[in-house]
Hints:
Blueprint: E1 5-10, H1 17-30, E2 35-39, H2 46-50, E3 59-62, E4 65-69, H3 72-93, H4 98-104, H5 110-124, E5 130-134, H6 138-145, H7 147-157, H8 160-169, H9 179-199, E6 204-210, H10 214-229, E7 234-242, H11 252-268, E8 274-278, H12 287-298, E9 313-315, E10 318-322, E11 331-336, E12 339-344, E13 347-352, E14 362-368, E15 371-376
Parallel strand pairs: 1-5, 1-6, 2-4, 2-5, 6-7, 7-8
Antiparallel strand pairs: 3-4, 9-10, 10-15, 11-12, 12-13, 14-15
Amino acid sequence: MLSSSLVLFTGKGGVGKTTNAAAAAARCAATGRKTIVVSADPAHSLADVLNVPLGAEPTLVSESLFAAHLDGTAEFHRAWGKIRAYLGTILTASGLNEVTSAQVLTPPGAAELGARVALNALVDSATYEVVVVDCAPTSETLRLLALPTALDWFLARVNPGSMLKSLWHRGTGIPLPGSDVLSALDELRASLSAVEAMLRAPTASIRLVSGLERVVIAETRRLFTTLTVLGYHVDGVVANRVMSLGEREWPTEWARAHQVAISDLHDSFPDYPVWTVPFLAHEPIGCRALAEVGFASYGASGVIGQERTEPMVVTPNSLTLPTGFADDAQLRVAVAGTDLVITIDGHRRLIALPEALSGRPVRQARLRDGELRLSFGSP
């Protein structure tokens, strides 16, 4: 059984995520590794870049390379259908009309939820050695990654048991949910847990694609910070459309500005690889052109980066986490029961505290050199 490596490409809209995801996949396939590249971006530009029609089912694009569009909406309806139908009965009995019920019964990020479940099924099948994902732009990707927390909140409020209690007291006669409804709910929760485990597995990573403009690099730094605080493994940065000095086709001033930007990226991410993709005079369309871009970008090092190591360091009295470029104004830290709650720019992460630290007050929180160190007092 194969153990799939998972690489998600994301970044600011328009920086070249789709082309770079496809190029990385083509590079992997060219070395004989069975690879699939899938689009989780509603724009679905992957078919245009590969120059082949794509659907939800994997399509063989070239030897060892497959591609597909993740159909999040269809997968959502499959996973949510039985639950939705039963909850609709309850809400209608509560006096809500069909239109309002339909709005209430659409969980936050329905399509993104479906895409996550479909991606998990793809990775779990272990059919491919490498799975490359062309993600949506920054904000949509963060929403995709944050879905478990949002959906847990939603499910807690539309749980059939809690909704039925008040209705039974009013004598509505609504039947208990059948085994098919409860099984569907359990399956959905299990799928979400599996997806979360998949995205945090040692073989999973997120790769940031950046342009060379100052504002784009600034957003790349912010995205890196948010992903790092939320506990995801960023394995490097792809600098796209780089003009080289000495090439007659590019203006010298632009080429110099690009070299300064590349230097800035290396300074910003000293512990991470920064892969460079040359500015091409033509658009790379099709597997052969994309594979050439992949070889130019990654060389002999290959596409798959190092597996993640445990980023959290725990001692008997402290816990240390990486925080990227975060500052005091961005971070909020609290303890809720046995969980550590970290919030950055509206995104929340729950960390189950180790037994040695659980139930103890936070005595000091210090942010320094890209790390958050929490010191705990006596119980």
